[in-house]
Design a protein that fits this description.
Distance between the termini: 16 Å
Number of helices: 9
Largest sheet: none
Oligomer: single chain
Radius of gyration: 19 Å
Number of strands: 0
Order of helices and strands: HHHHHHHHH
Strand content: under 5%
Length: about 300
Amino acid sequence: MGADTPNTPPLVSLLSGGIAGGIEASATYPFEFAKTRVQLRSQTNSPTTSPNPTPKNPFLIVSRVFRTEGPRALYKGCSSLIIGSVAKDGVRFLSFDLIKDAFKDPETGALTPVRNLGAGMCSGVVASVFAVTPTERVKTAMIDDARGQKRFRSAAHAVRVIYAEDGVLGLYHGFAGTTLKQASATAFRMGTYNILKDFEGRKEVAQSTVTNFVNGAVAGTVTTYATQPFDTVKTRAQSARGASTVEAFKSVVVDDGVRGFWRGTTMRLGRTVFSGGILFTVYEQVAAVLNPMFR
C-alpha cells in the first residue's frame, strides 16, 4: 500500500481488505457494542426499558450486559457488522488503491501526505454509499432495539422490518453523518498508515507484523479523536426509530452539550487501536499470499 511498493492487483485489494475487515470486526465487536450503547439516547422514561439509566462508562455497560443478558448479548448485531466490514473494507482498500493512483503527482509519481488524505477521503465516500450506511443502520438499530422492544429477531428480520416501515431510504438513515464519518475516518486511517509506511521506507525500516500492527494502531488512534463527533451523530441517527442527521445533532447538544459529541471515545479508542492493528496486519499478510497468484 505504500507509495514505494508495486501496484496491488484490484482483486487482491478487494479480497485482502474483505478478509481483514471480517476478522477485525469479529475480534473487536464487544468494544463496538459498548460504544454504541453509550452513544444511544437514554430511554429511561419508556415503559419497555429498564428503569436503570445506561452508564456512561462503557466498561460498566459490558459488565452489566454480561450479567443481565448473557455473553451472547454482547454480539447483538455482530453479523450485520461483519457483513458490512467485509464489504466496507474490501471496497475501501480496493477504491483507495485505485484512487491513490489518480492522486499521485504527475511528474514525480509521489503521493504526498495531503494527497494520501484526499485519496482516503474519496474511498471513504465510496464505501459509505455501497456498504457502510445500510449495514451500520441495521447494526445500530439492533443494538438499540435490544434495550427495549426487542422486535428484531435477526439482522435479516431487522432489514425486512425497516424496509416495510420506511422503504429503502430507511436503510440510509444517518447517511450524511455516516458518509462524513467514513470520509474523514478513511482519510485519517488510510492516510496516516501510508504516511507512516512511506516514512519508514525512506528510513529503511524493515516491514514486519509488529511494524504493521503499530502503524495500524497509531492510525486508529488518530482516526478516533478526529472523527468521534461524526460517529456520535451517526449512531443517534441510526437508532431503532431512526432520525435525521440534524435531529441527531440537536439531540446530542440538548442531552450533553458539546462534550456529548465525544461520548464513547474510550471504548471506540480501545476498538480502533486494536482494529487498526489487526486490519492492516491481516491485510498485508493476506495480500502477500495472494499477490503472487494474481500477478
